[in-house]
């Protein structure tokens, strides 16, 4: 299979292997609970697109929204704690 990467330096600066850096992977890992919670909310909303939401669907969406809010809160608190302790870059 051929690679479809843009090899022009104006479009995409070339890096070794085009892999994410360790810092980018760490940032993704920190945000992963929020990403997963948002994915679950989107799944719950997609289920109700072609039908009238049932009581169970409404509960599923409400719980998914609460998980998103909790994940956002935890991420914001973690970021604020890191900034207060001087760990933020």
Strand content: under 5%
Taking pLDDT < 50 over at least 5 consecutive residues as the criterion, the unreliable ranges are: none
The helix/strand class is mainly alpha
Based on Cα principal axes, name the global outline: flat
Please work out how many helical segments DSSP would assign.
2
Distance between the termini: 39 Å
Reported for the largest beta sheet, the result is: none
DSSP E strands, number: 0
Helix content: 55-70%
Mean pLDDT: 85
Topology:
Layout: H1 22-47, H2 55-85
Helix pairs in contact: 1-2
Structure, explained:
The chain has 89 residues and is mainly alpha-helical. It contains 2 helices and no strands. The chain has helices at residues 22-47, 55-85. Helix 1 packs antiparallel against helix 2. The chain starts with 21 loop residues before the first helix and ends with a helix. The mean pLDDT is 85.
